[in-house]
Amino acid sequence: VQLQESGPGLVKPSQTLSLTCTVSGGSITTNYYYWSWIRQPPGKGLEWMGTMSYSGSTYYSTSLKSRTSISRDTSKNQFTLNLRSVTPEDTAIYYCNAYSDSVWSWGQGTQVTVSS
Question: Tens digits of per-residue pLDDT, 38-82?
């Protein structure tokens, strides 16, 4: 499968960041696929944010759970990240990825900066 992130590159503090991952080459409802959002702040490592399963179940990082939601549009074969009440500490490269049968597929990533 191929994945492509899209969304705003600049978000103001306190706003909600919304990013969409468009999937091609496979359906997001295909059994045993797991769809995730991961980010990398500048100078830091990768941070898992949350995952949606092929059935629509969601799992979130404990540290981000209160601000994060993942939804999907099966008609468009997309899944979306919403991160509420952003601060400059949410500045990062955001990636979507897919996992199934020991294979990882990644989007190219999109830079998001939180600044007024």
Answer: 999 999 999 999 999 999 999 999 999 999 999 999 999 999 999
Tell me whether strands 58-60 and 47-53 are parallel, antiparallel or unpaired: antiparallel
DSSP string, 12-40: -TTS-EEEEEEEESS-TTSTT-EEEEEEE
Find, among 24, 110, 36, 15, the residue nearest to 80 by Cα.
Answer: 36
Instruction: For 99, list phi and psi in degrees, rounded to 5.
Output: -135, 130
- Contacts of 97 by beta carbon, 8 Å cutoff, 6+ apart: 3, 35, 36, 38, 104, 105, 106, 107
Give the integer Cα–Cα distance in Å for 116 and 110. Answer: 19
